[in-house]
Amino acid sequence: MKALQYAQNVADLFALPEGYLHAKQLMDSDTASLDEVADVIMLDPVLTSKLLKLANSAIYNLPYQVESVSKALLILGKTQVYNLILSIGISSACSKIDTSAIDLERFWEQSINAALIARFLAQCCLLKPTDRYYVAGLLHNIGELVVLQNNPVQAQNCQNYTASERPWQVQQRELGFTYADCGAELLHLWQLPDSIVEPIALQHSHNFVQKNKAQLVTYLATRLALANQHPEIYSIKELVDPFVLELLQLSQQDVLRAIDFCNTEGLFILSVLNPRISTIY
After folding, report:
1. 77: phi > 0 → left, psi -120 to 50 → alpha, else beta; which?
2. Residue 26 phi, psi (nearest 5)
3. Which end of the chain has the lower number of beta carbons within 10 A, N or C?
4. Is 160 exposed, middle or buried, given 0-12, 13-18 or 19+ CB atoms closer than 10 A?
5. Are 54 and 131 in contact (CB under 8 A)?
6. Which of 200, 198, 203, 211 shows the shortest CA–CA distance to 241?
7. The whole model's pTM is what?
């Protein structure tokens, strides 16, 4: 099967929660007020709780507590709140599947680390809105769950990457496509914006263009997250083309600061998005 077929097979199972869909519908409307959006979000207590926890995290570094959904919308804006509830909605959708064939802890740690690194790098590069980069990082490897649901044996085999054969190379050999390919197909089926889907689809491309900052940041964030997850296998120097740092005008110090940030905040975000994993710690 091809990447699109894999994504189509799981589209119904990976359904986004109603609370997210209603909130998205209002946020896409030109006439809905912030209060109306807040009212819909507050109908879902889990969504409300997680949204407020994330809004009060060091990701935003606000000088005061955000105590209500209305205040979160007012301070963060509809775009950032939309991206936060998207993250929450997707983690809820993915929680329904049997993940025993893969290392779920590794999957979510790497996804969240890529999200935090992408957001930090976007800030360094003065790219806005930074949450778009956060979501692309978070979803960069969602294709792994798509393949897992279609064929657990293939997903298990794709974990056998080594220093000489990187994860996306194993995926291409085993499947005929990468997790980036089928993940992007699923996100298209979810009707996510191209500004999020395209960097995910292109994360393994070496066709670097300075104006395509989203692809460059996603490429860099996903590789840094992989090196951070597996320091015994990969080094940053091996995985990252220095030309990308040059195009983004980033220094090695920026890279190290981004990794420090994800290591500091990663467990907290993990506890919010996937509490069943965080209980390990």
Report:
1. left
2. -70, -40
3. C
4. exposed
5. no
6. 203
7. 0.88
Instruction: Specify whether the CB–CB gap between 213 and 153 falls below 8 A.
Output: no
What is the total residue count of the chain?
281
What type of residue is 260?
A: D
Helices (H), the chain: 3-10, 18-27, 34-42, 45-55, 69-76, 78-94, 104-124, 130-138, 143-150, 152-157, 167-175, 179-189, 194-201, 213-229, 236-239, 242-248, 252-273, 275-278
The model's pLDDT over 228-274, given as tens digits with 9 standing for 90+, comes to 999 999 999 999 999 999 999 999 999 999 999 999 988 888 888 77
Whether 41 and 69 have beta carbons less than 8 Å apart is answered as: yes
**210: amino acid identity, one letter:** Q
CB neighbours of residue 238 within 10 Å: 11
